[in-house]
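User: My advisor asked me to double-check a structure prediction for YecA family protein before group meeting. I don't want to rely on an old file, so could you generate it fresh from this sequence?
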Amino acid sequence: MSTRFNYDRLVELYAQYDMTPSASEVQGMLTGLIATGSDAKSNELMILMSDLAYDGQGLPVELENLLQQQAEEIEHSLGDEELGYRLLLPEDTTPLSDRLSALAGWVNAFLVGYGVNQENMTNLSGDLKEAIEDMVELAKVEFTDDGDEEEERAYFEIVEYLRISAMMCYAELGRNEQPANQPPKILH
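Assistant: Sure, here is a fresh prediction for YecA family protein from the sequence you gave:
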C-alpha cells in the first residue's frame, strides 16, 4: 500500500474527527468490506462506514473524502498484480505490544467488515474458509509481548498471512458484482 496513508498521519487525522476506531481498525473494516464485494467508490460504503466507525452520524465532508480515498487505494492494492496491499500498522520501531494491539484491532475490524457482506462460509474455497477461521481464532488471542526475537518473527509472519488472506478474500469475493438494485445495508 502506498505511503500516502501512513499510520501516524491517519491517527492524527482521525483524532481530529473524534473517530472511535483506530487507524488500523478503520483500514481493517474498509478492507473487510471491499474484500467481500463493497465498491470502494460507492455511497453505500460511506453509509456503512458512518454506521460502523462514526456511531451512525453523518461523516464530515473532509472525513468522507479521506475515507473514500483510502477505500479506493485499498481496492486498488488488493487487486494489484504486484501484491501491493499492506496492513496499516505502527512502524516496526514501535514497541511490539503496541503493534500487537493494532494488529488485533485490524483483525477484529476486518471480521466486522467481512461479516456485513458475508452471512455464511458455505460457498468459500477451502483455503479462504481456513483463512477466515484462522482470523476468528486470532481475534480471540490475547497477545503478549516478551520482547524476544521469536515473537518479532511470529508477528511478521502473522502480518504476512493476514495480508495474503485479505488479497485472497478480495480475489474470491470482492471482484464479484453486487446487484445494482440492492439497497445499502443500514446497521442502525
